[in-house]
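S1.2 Input.
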Amino acid sequence: MASGRVVWMNGRLVPEAEAKISVYDSALMFGDMVFEMTRSFGKRQFKLREHLERLYAGLKILRIPVGMDLAEMERHCQEAIEANEPLFGADDEHRLMIDVSRGTLGIYQGVEGLHKGPNVIIADFPLRWTVAGMGHLFDTGINAVITSQRAIPGTFLDPKVKNRSRIHYLMANIEASSVAGDDNWALLLDPDGFIAEGTGDNFFIVKDNVIVSPEGRNILRGISRAYVMEALAPQLGMTVVERNIEPYDVHTADEAFMTGTPFCMLPVTRLNGLPIGDGAVGPAFGRLLRRWSDNVGVDIERQIKDWNAADGAGGSDAPTPYRFKKK
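S1.3 Output.
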């Protein structure tokens, strides 16, 4: 069934179901694509400029000649939002997915009808799709599962460039899904055995009211991570440090949480099934989340819980960006 939504693709708006790239595209052949995903609060984009700045850093490093400057890309993002807004409900939020691939590989350039040059694709869909079923986690927390799948270090494939070569994330999710119980999210170690990141989220611990983040060496330096460290924590008078974190440090922490664009923050109350602190959602998490909600004028926890109540949580068995469900 057609959705009516449209996607900005290579200079024009096309129906969502028709927004496609070639089987000969470098993204399909090599995972050769830089991307960003954003969200809105009250229909207003949050940190769009910061997301685009990271996108353009990745394009520069991977040498993808996008053919437009950042300001132009930002205008096209707004075009996609404006075109789709009439199809969004009053309580919906806009989730942008901005993909840029290198385009069709040279040996296939002669295929008739293929787009030549990089593909720029801006999709806009309801944020609730991404956070479906997450509402209860604000109360119970996540069980972080350290997987055998390690993070890929920056010396091999720089995770600070947000790229589509992410099969290691999926393998970690599949492994975490085999663990007994619910709400198991993968947590990756780097090659030296230090905590790196989740599969689409950054990880923090709190010890003696100090927020601790893994060093930014072998992780995607998330926009939400930066907001906690550079805005929320200073507003609340909390200290933030970056240092190597071992699993022992998590086991002995007072609390822990993850950050990511769609859900902002979620508590982590267990590591490999063992409670972190007293096993309950911690006070530092609550303070940070309330301040974030106050800053953006949206009750983040309530919004996600209301969506879950309205839509019914967890109806599909298909993989999600954060979890791979058991069959």
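S1.4 Remarks. The chain has two domains: 6-126, 137-311.
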